[in-house]
Amino acid sequence: MPGFNWRFRDKAPLPFKLLVAIVIFNFAVDVSLIFSLPHWGKFLPDVRHTYPIAVRGRGLYFVGPWVGKFLSLGLWANFVLILAVVFMVWWYREQLVRE
C-alpha cells in the first residue's frame, strides 16, 4: 500500500512488540467473549452471575463481575492501547525507515 512502507531499522523494540501483542490478545479475548456469551451467560442472575450485559437482539445475560467489567471496559481499553502503540511509534521514530 502506498504510504505504509515504514519499518524499524533493525528490529522492532521489545516494548513495542509487547504492546502490540497485548492489543491483539485483548481484542481476541474481547471478541471471543462477546460471541460466546450466549453459550455460557445466564438469563437469570444467581450468586456468581450478577453483572448484567445487554446484547442487542439477544436479550440480557448475567455474567460474573470480573467478566462483566472486562466486557464493559475491554473495547475502550483497546482504544487506549492503540493510542499507546501510536505513541510508541512516535517515541521510536528515529529507528523508523521508509522503504
Topology of this structure?
Elements: E1 6-8, H1 14-40, E2 51-55, E3 59-63, H2 65-91, E4 96-98
Antiparallel strand pairs: 1-4, 2-3
General description of the model:
- The chain has 99 residues and is of the alpha+beta class.
- It has one domain.
- Helices cover 55% and strands 16% of the residues.
- The strands form 2 sheets. Strands 1-4 form a two-stranded antiparallel ribbon. A two-stranded antiparallel sheet has the order 2-3.
- The chain is elongated.
- The protein starts with 5 loop residues before the first strand and ends with a strand.
Put the structure in a nutshell:
The chain has 99 residues and is of the alpha+beta class. The protein has one domain (11-89). The protein has helices at residues 14-40, 65-91, and strands at residues 6-8, 51-55, 59-63, 96-98.
Strand-residue fraction? Answer: 15-25%
Helicity range: 40-55%
Rg for CA atoms:
19 Å
Form type: elongated
**Cross-sheet strand order for the largest sheet:** 1-4
Determine the N-to-C terminus distance. 12 Å
Q: What's the total count of β strands?
A: 4
Features:
99 residues; alpha+beta; two-stranded antiparallel ribbon; 55% helix; 16% strand; elongated
